[in-house]
Amino acid sequence: MANLLEVRDLRVSFGAHEAVRGLSFDIAAGETLALVGESGCGKSATALSLMRLVPSPGRVSGSLRFDGRELLELPPREVRAIRGRQISMIFQEPMTSLNPVLSIGAQIVETLRQHEQLSKRDAWKRAIELLDLVQVPEPQRRVFDYPHELSGGQRQRVMIAMAVACRPRLLIADEPTTALDVTIQAHILELLDLLRRELSMALLLITHDLGVVAEHADRVAVVLAGEKVEEAPVSKLFTQPQHPYTRGLLDASLNLADDLHYRGWKLPEIRHGVTDDGKPTFAVVPRAARTGQYVADPTPGFSALDDPAPLLSLHDLRVDYPQRHSNSVLRAVDGVSLHIARGETVGLVGESGCGKSTLSKAIVRLVPATSGEIRLRGTDLVSLRERELRPLRRHVQMVFQDPYASLNPRRTVAEILDTVLVVNGVADRNSRRQRIAGILDRVGLPSSALGRFPHEFSGGQRQRIGIARALVLEPALLICDEPVSALDVSIQAQILNLLVELKRDLGLAYLFISHDLSVVRYIADRVHVMQNGRIVESGHHREIWRHPQHPYTRTLLDAIPGRVFDAQAA
Amino acid sequence: MASESQDLISTAGEVPAAKSPWRRQLGGALFGARGASSVPAGGGAGRGVWYSLLRNPSALAGLVLLTAFLLLALFANRLFPGDPLDMVAAPFEWPGTDPQYWLGTDSLGRDVAAGIAHGTRVSLLIGASSAVIGLVIGTLVGAIGGFFGGIVDDLLVRVTELFQTVPSFLLVIVIVAIGRPSVSMIALAIGVASWPTVARIVRAEFRTLRNADFVLAARSQGFSNARIIFGEILPNALPPVIVTASVMVASAILIESSLSFLGMGDPNAVSWGSMIGAGRDALRTAWYLTAIPGVAIVLAVLALNLLGDGLNDALNPRLRQRI
Lengths: 570, 323
What we know:
The structure holds two protein chains of two kinds. Chain A is of the alpha/beta class. In chain A, strand 21 (about 475-480), helix 16 and strand 22 (about 510-515) form a beta-alpha-beta unit. In chain A, helix 3 packs across helix 4 and helix 7 (about 180-200) crosses helix 19 (about 550-560). The radius of gyration of chain A is 25 Å and the shape is globular. By secondary structure, chain B is mainly α. In chain B, about 70% of the residues lie in helices and about 0% in strands. Chain B is built from 13 helices and no strands. At the A-B interface, helix 12, strand 20, helix 13, helix 14 and helix 15 of A face helix 1, helix 2, helix 10 and helix 11 of B.
């Protein structure tokens, strides 16, 4: 089969920074190639250079032959004719890639009429057909909807409809499902696969998630720091990975690792570094069995309910958000009861909008509870006034999802940590300094970090600062709200390992909130599954994966990408 | 100045306890990249606002002009000793005719150059102090309204709107007419008339920042409201306010000139506006009497606007290009 796209020695540089360093790959017509790598490895720059959309300081060199024609040498007019018609692209963020002031139908029509001689009437007819093709329910009605009236998954479907409107021969999907829930992710990936076959397009799937690749790609190219380290058919890559980096990625991908639990195993880590001559390097720390305290797993019958005095117990907690301009309320948390014992990790799983973040904020009283009880060591927090609550706040601390937004960009690490102690009444400067030095060491940051501002750190380091800020008050319970969702696979493993070590050394209890079942499967002792503000299933970590009772739990489990190879490995 | 900031940051590593938080935070506002997520980590923070200001030619020109005016104001007494309102020579001497009074003399035989120099003092003083007054009131109102929301916010927004609907120049005239027309009274009047702009900007920033994760983190750690407002949110809300401040100084200078032109300024102080007002009667015979202070006003306002534009670019990380 002739190759539709041949990329040879592609280089993209932004000033002194080389994002892509001599990448070469082919895509045959009708084939799916997955480009896998961690953030900053140059995979998005590759996609943009195929569309000739690399932003201005960027320089592209090498050869990009599409259907026998050299893309880099085409005049802008012909590039525009190819863009959207022959090669089209869908982006990660469905919230911002649609124009909010036009109806979705109008946007599809605009795309169609840009490339094809169609009357308005015919174009609208085609738009409805396209919405039907991407499985948007009731396309005749929804074609007049505006983007804000659609859910995230439906918006991504509309984006796909626009991308395939002119039956392109190559579709580039840049992290198409990263911003979506697991169940929706599975549907979108299936849809892409279906469209590829129906429209006989080639698909370039760009992702950081090896699980996504496993089910939906023919071949996989693994990219590290702008260079391809390995390319193989998907089954070969998963069974016989050649390059150590690929092996590291496969090991660190939690949704491929069956039955790995923190009590038994330390996760493998990939540590990135830079050599003296500026070349990026990495080292893989293989997975290791834990010894000592954690080997003994409590029996499946263990439950915090038996504990005479749980650290935190919620009883029938409800949180309502009043709606603007109406008297109705939105019940975000609807009668949740749960208990967390000392030193226990409780996982809370659910999709976006299920109320899990509201629940975590309600526990630390960042949003007021409507009714119910939050008992911290027996004291009910709901009825306390802010003044009475303040001395208790240090016992329960939070780690946030976004390591970029959760640190004040205007303050150095030293100030961030110091203010927390000052506010909580540690008056002695020397003891503050000691505690800060101690905590920084614990979370694995050098003492030179103190004088620096948050933007000088990488995402993983920032998350360490966020953890240090929470731990400097020596809490008994740490609420982790999606602490690793914004991080790369390798960094994710490092942070999870850190959390486990901190728990062991400091006897912490965690409430670990995540949409990602595979992360919760690793880190939690007990798991609660949340849907529409209620807990639909609770149980010991092993029971819930092996014998899920509630249909929703089963749906979630089925949607984890990469289960094909899970089964093969077992 | 860039190297100075680097010193600041590197020495801070040995002193975990913040010595003077405000200076450090303003340092953070100026040197730390705002919303630096778009910028790759690792770059020195010293190449911040100053660096990009000095690389921007129009901002540099504004900075140089402003510095010149500042020096002129500082050394006005040294360069032109004595009262600029004294009659020192024959009236209507054209610029260049007498080397001792090289910008000429006015209808009463007063030195125009001395008037310009001393007028710079009055203009800059009124400009700066009214901007400070406007900033303080506006920041307080905007911060409290934006942070607390609800009824407090509604109330403060109404008050702000009340001030915005009244033409600010009229308001200044009324206040000055009620009080005594002194330099401090004029500065106060202009400050009171100009705070609503600041209040709106600060309120908008606070409304977006009050739900930021780092503010939630601070609340969950028991920070008091005052500490969150002034310690956490305000430093992040400052950049647009700093930009507005430079434009406020410029418009205050203009308002003061208009007041003095109308004869409502401080009768005991020379200002650019009063010089134009006095020269107006002799516009056909001695046009330089209005042109020279006019040029001074144009240059000062231009300098501040150039600086404001430069600051706007420099404080916006999307426009600030790093090499």
